[in-house]
User: Fold this.
Amino acid sequence: MWNHYYGLKLTEQDIQKGIHRNQVGGMWQEMRELQLKFMKEQGLKPEHELLDVGCGSLRGGIAFIDYLNEGKYSGLDINSSLIKAGQAEIKNANLNSKKPVLIVNDSFNFKPFNKKFDYAIAQSVFTHLPVNLIQKCLINIEHVMNPGGKFYATFFETKRKFDASPIHQPNSGGIITNIDRDPFHYHISLFKYLVKGSSLQMNYIGNWGHPRNQKMICFSKGKNSA
Ligand SMILES: C[S@@+](CC[C@H](N)C(=O)[O-])C[C@H]1O[C@@H](n2cnc3c(N)ncnc32)[C@H](O)[C@@H]1O
Assistant:
């Protein structure tokens, strides 16, 4: 499979020990605060519907659930044990009353949420995915975003489109990214190509304070699209 999250299994004891926090990249507090701060700066308000794509064990999720009104947080992940860990985090944070909805699936099928979203985020998810899965995610998300909705995604960037060698990502603590395996890097032109002709438009944001040099892009759904 494409990345280790497909087969990852955490026991109840692992979850009690907090191992799920490292499995999504550690930096639990820092990445939680960064995600919420960034989305608030982009206009996220408590009354908005938010979709967290590849939500994992809710590193950002807990902050979003706390901030949003009841029923406004939806999270999807491929890994059931990370979702289980996320449910434990919700309980520990006394946030069950916010009624977050968490779904496990491996095909970016957002239809079971049965709603449309104003905002979505995929933080440190495209970095683990080959391009065909990113394409699938974008195809499916287009149908569940409200007109004017915004989907933010992070990725590792290469500036060298025609160079297949691995890249030592600067200011990343030594991460090496690849064209053909996890962690993946991409040239920005790829994302433009993937949404060309759809109702999504891509804008490059770039640096957003990520401690491992992941860049941010935004896919905006046209205001007049269905
Ligand atoms: C580095 S973690 C980031 C989790 C979360 N976004 C955060 O910031 O803490 C990557 C997440 O992407 C999820 N993931 C990987 N491949 C996926 C796929 N095909 N569909 C849904 N989620 C996926 C993993 O299970 C994992 O939870």
